[in-house]
Amino acid sequence: MRRHVNDNIAKFQGLLIGGVFTHLPFLVRAEAGEAERISTFRATEELLMKCGNAFVEIVLLEKNMQELAGYTSRYVTKSQAWPWHG
C-alpha cells in the first residue's frame, strides 16, 4: 500500500515538473499574441502530454532501479556469506 502511495506521489510530481518544462515555452513566448499561443498549444497538446508522461516514466524507472539495486545488494551479500563461496 505504501509503495502505491509513493508511486502516485512520484507520478504527480513528475507530471507537475514535466508540465512546467513542456508548457513553459508557450507561456513565455512574448512575440506571439494570446490567441496564437493558445492555438499553437492546442495543436501540440497531445505531444506535450506524451512528454509529461515520459517524464513520469523516467521518475518511476529511477525508483524501480533503486529498488532493484537494493535486491541485488542483498543477494550479493547473502551469496558471499555462503560457506561454499570461493
Short précis:
With 86 residues, the chain is an all-alpha fold. The protein has helices spanning 2-27, 34-43, 45-81.
Explain what this protein looks like in three dimensions.
This protein has 86 residues and is mostly helical. The protein has one domain (2-81). It contains 3 helices and no strands. The longest helix has 37 residues, at 45-81. It is rod-shaped, with a radius of gyration of 21 Å. The two termini are 40 Å apart. The relative contact order is 0.13. The model has no long low-confidence stretch (mean pLDDT 77).
From the structure above, extract its key features.
86 residues, 3 helices, rod-shaped
**Domain count:** 1
What is the element string, with H for helices and E for strands? HHH
Class computed from helices, strands and strand pairing: mainly alpha
N/C terminus separation: 40 Å
Number of strands: 0
What percent of the residues sit in helical stretches (DSSP H or I)?
over 70%
User: What is Rg?
Assistant: 21 Å
- Average the pLDDT over all residues and give the rounded result: 77
Give the overall form.
rod-shaped
Number of helical segments with 4 or more residues: 3
Largest beta-sheet characterization = none
Regions with little confidence, pLDDT below 50 for 5+ residues:
none
Task: Report the β-strand fraction as a percent range.
Answer: under 5%
